[in-house]
Design brief:
The complex is a heterodimer of chains A (323) and B (442).
Chain A lengths: L16 E3 L13 E3 L19 E7 L7 H4 L9 H10 L5 E5 L12 H14 L4 E4 L4 H14 L6 E5 L5 H10 L2 E5 L4 H13 L7 E4 L9 H16 L9 E3 L1 H6 L17 H17 L3 E6 L2 H15 L5
Chain B lengths: L4 H7 L13 H9 L13 H11 L5 E4 L3 E4 L16 E7 L4 H12 L2 E4 L2 E4 L2 E5 L5 H14 L3 E5 L3 H7 L9 E5 L4 H11 L3 E4 L3 H12 L6 E4 L5 H17 L10 E3 L5 H13 L4 E4 L4 H14 L14 E3 L8 E5 L2 H13 L4 E6 L6 H6 L5 H10 L10 E4 L7 H8 L2 E4 L7 H7 L3
Helix pairs in contact in B: 1-2, 4-5, 5-6, 10-11, 14-15
Classes of the chains: A alpha/beta (323), B alpha/beta (442).
Chain lengths: 323, 442
């Protein structure tokens, strides 16, 4: 006897955000990336349509990053050259986007000037045809200067820039409005702050379809369950027509997962944990695949071997099931 | 569950005898509806009423127990934020009877060794699924006994052939394996075998409609110890089926699907397979059979399972006692933090990375983080001072300096006064500990 299945009919959908701009649109990208748009819970094709598949942004830093050797070795000799590094991510590893993190701006570190940072971004733009995400060094005052310079130097490219946070959003939102970019709104695993921040940014005049939510995930083994549930609630909120929760979500998977000891320690140090080669790759991979199940739209990743596995996982999930 | 007090009252004897401990039948019915009290305390309830009330009160997904303490199902929500998930996916490693005896022994040994300790928790692989791929009943029975003798873990015994199950299952029935699979073609015999041996059995059909028919027919044989397999072997279809089964069971109380569900991975590359398995661990598989069994591959999956099945209302805590990191001595720094597991282990990881042997004292905050605890009045200077003076560190170090989280810098003066220790304000985030520790001169 045929079973009557439960198919949800949601009143709304996740908002769409377009990243990048082609020459016709005032930028220089070969093509744009659109995220969001789904009117269903992740990958449940029977009740809606996966309009835009989740995408992977690969992380590129402006100075050689302090990552473990297992990851760095996969990039060869490009880690001191952001443009060549970005090109490798796109050409060899199939990155949909490049996420440039300007850690060289850190006043406690290299303290690079906003102009130098903008130049790095321009170099990366020249080297690849995919849209860019650009963030600073997580020092709010410095980032405000850096991102203002980057936003101006790349006007028209329709970047996704960050980070706007509850106590520091005005400067970056203004830069995005003036120079026509999108903004990452980051809130610390808190759905109310998340909504509040979106409201504040929106009140400044930046449209909702120019905002992407960063819920500040925890990595596998270190609080991923909090991110999992916050994101699942946000997705349900978006589908239930809560406009201030309806933006696509970006997750800093590579950063959070690779902070874990489990992604870095050798089998010699922890014999019971098994070989680091597989463990490290899977630590990042499962952080990504678990969050895909609760609605991640943009996964920021760093380990090419993990990127490949997540690409397979996404391909399996967006494949339309036979009726 | 699901019935109102009045609906329950109609089924009761209405004697108002009070023998159940509640003065009237109506009051008793109201208590039952509120989930308090048990129907068993009524000595006069009729069998018909008991059956009607039991089935209405039964959980939406039946609990199925097998093997060495494995429990499947008995879930009540679709989303963990609605309450919690109760029974973590039981994960079993595939062993085939076409392999050589040496390969089988090695695999079982490997699975036995899948025990992990991290962040104060212990994880292990649940068991082994022995699969009859040889088609040979005698060989299968021999392998099943061999595996059973070599491991204490839970067993699943899988064959398409009735004869193979009939010869392999009875000798190991005392281990209470989960057996399968009963299909449209063989369900009468296979369910009869399960019933006779009192074992749970997998019902497998191709698609949900066929599965519904099969469950109805199998239930008609007077048995209910079932685990469902909707037959799909593609990730996107398995995700859809697992979701449909869970939704119908929870939202519609659709009885034929009120059983736990087993999923099987299909990817051959171990790392792809673990990524595939992560879909089923997050979305509703009660049991999962996979091939990968290397430690470095299994630990990430077991970690994800532990994370997803953590009760959102009960944060994991560590013992609020003095912890030593590294080879400590009388000059080692002393950090205080909270007893929320994530907070503690973030601090511990960074202290370890600083390569400076140190003491860490997690103060009892009911498992809340620094800011939450402070906001709730659970991280007051008086309490920290008391913990510091009573934890034994006084006799272990000769200095009197304590490092507190940067977020509660405001309590420094009071803590110094209450404890008599010099208070050093540490970084706000644990990620700042390494550079902080190196700059520290006590």
């Amino acid at each position: 006897m045929p079973v009557t299945l439960v198919k949800e009919r949601f009143p709304s959908k996740v908002g769409e955000v377009t990243l990048g701009a082609t020459a016709e649109q005032g930028g220089t990208r070969d093509s744009v990336v659109v995220v969001g748009g789904d009117n269903l819970l992740p990958f449940l094709h029977f009740e809606g349509k996966v309009v835009h598949r989740p995408v992977i942004a690969m992380e590129v830093t402006d100075i050689v990053p302090p990552w473990n050797e297992a990851i760095k070795a996969q990039f060869g000799d490009v880690l001191d050259n952001p443009a060549a590094w970005a090109k490798k991510c796109v050409d060899e590893f199939g990155a949909d986007l490049i996420y440039v993190k300007l850690i060289g701006a850190d006043p406690e570190g290299f303290n690079r000037s906003p102009e130098d940072c903008a130049r790095v971004v321009k170099d990366v733009l020249a080297a690849v045809g995919v849209p860019l995400i650009v963030v600073g060094c997580e020092t709010p005052e410095k980032d405000n200067e850096v991102m203002a310079a980057v936003a101006e130097a790349t006007a028209g490219e329709n970047l996704l820039i960050g980070l706007a946070e509850q106590d520091n959003y005005k400067s970056i939102a203004a830069a995005a409005m003036v120079h026509k970019h999108n903004v990452i709104a980051r809130s610390p695993l808190d759905i109310n702050i998340c909504k509040q921040l979106n409201i504040l940014i929106n009140e400044m005049g930046l449209p909702l379809n120019k905002i992407v939510i960063d819920p500040m995930i925890g990595g596998l083994g270190f609080g991923i369950e909090y991110a999992y549930s916050i994101m699942e609630r946000a997705r349900l909120g978006a589908l239930a027509n809560d406009k201030m929760l309806s933006m696509p979500m970006i997750c800093t998977v590579g950063y959070e997962s690779n902070r874990a000891k489990e992604a870095n320690e050798s089998v010699e140090a922890f014999p019971d944990w098994g070989e680091l080669a597989d463990r490290g790759v899977l630590w990042e991979t499962l952080t990504a695949t678990a969050l895909l199940q609760v609605g991640a739209s943009i996964l920021v990743m760093r380990n090419p071997a993990a990127v490949k596995l997540v690409q397979h996982n996404i391909a399996d999930l967006v494949e339309v099931a036979e009726a | 569950m699901g019935l109102t007090g009045l609906e329950i009252y109609k089924q009761l004897p209405k004697k108002n005898c009070g023998e159940c401990g509640t003065p009237t039948c109506l009051a008793f019915a109201m208590a039952l509806a509120a989930g308090k009290g048990a129907l068993d305390s009524c000595p006069y309830v009729s069998d018909a009423a008991r059956e009607a009330l039991d089935s209405a009160a039964a959980p939406p997904i039946r609990a199925i127990k097998f093997g060495n303490g494995s429990v499947l199902g008995d879930e009540t929500v679709l989303f963990r934020h609605d309450k919690t998930f109760y029974h973590p996916t039981t994960i079993l490693v595939h062993v085939s009877d076409v392999w050589s005896d040496a390969d089988i022994s090695a695999k079982v040994e490997e699975v036995n060794g899948l025990e992990f300790d991290r962040v104060g928790l212990h994880y292990s692989m649940d068991g082994i699924a022995i699969v009859n791929e040889s088609g040979d009943a005698a060989r299968f029975a021999q392998v099943v006994q061999k595996v059973a003798a070599a491991t204490e873990k839970s067993l699943v015994i899988l064959s398409d052939k009735v004869e193979a199950l009939q010869s392999a299952v009875p000798p190991v029935a005392a281990r209470k394996p989960l057996i399968g699979s009963a299909t449209e073609e063989n369900y009468e015999t296979v369910v009869a075998l399960a019933k006779e041996q009192a074992l749970p059995v997998i019902l497998k059909a191709n698609g949900l409609d066929a599965l519904n028919d099969l469950v109805e027919k199998a239930q008609a044989l007077g048995y209910k110890e079932f685990v469902l397999d909707p037959g799909s072997r593609k990730p996107v279809e398995t995700l859809a089926n697992l979701t449909h089964l869970r939704r119908l069971a929870i939202k519609k109380k659709f009885r034929p699907f009120g059983y736990p569900v087993v999923a099987f991975t299909t990817k051959n590359e171990p790392l792809d397979e673990i990524a595939e398995a992560s879909i089923y661990v997050t979305k509703y598989a009660s049991a999962l059979v996979l091939k990968a069994s290397k430690k470095g591959q299994v630990l990430p999956l077991l970690t994800l399972r532990q994370n997803i099945y953590t009760d959102p209302q009960k944060p994991i805590q560590v013992e609020p006692t003095l912890h030593a990191v590294g080879d400590v001595n009388e000059n080692s720094p002393v950090y205080v933090t909270t007893n929320f597991s994530l907070t503690y282990y973030s601090v511990e990881g960074e202290v370890e990375a600083s390569k400076i042997p140190s003491y860490i004292l997690p103060v009892e905050t009911d498992g809340t983080s620094v800011l939450t605890a402070y906001a709730a009045g659970k991280y007051e200077p008086e309490k920290i001072a008391e913990a510091l003076l009573n934890c034994g560190v006084v006799d272990k170090v000769k200095h009197r300096n304590v490092i507190i989280p940067g977020y509660v810098a405001v309590i420094s003066g009071k803590l110094q006064e209450k404890s008599g220790w010099k208070v050093i304000v540490g970084p706000r985030e644990s990620s700042g500990i390494v550079s902080f520790a190196r700059s520290l001169s006590l």
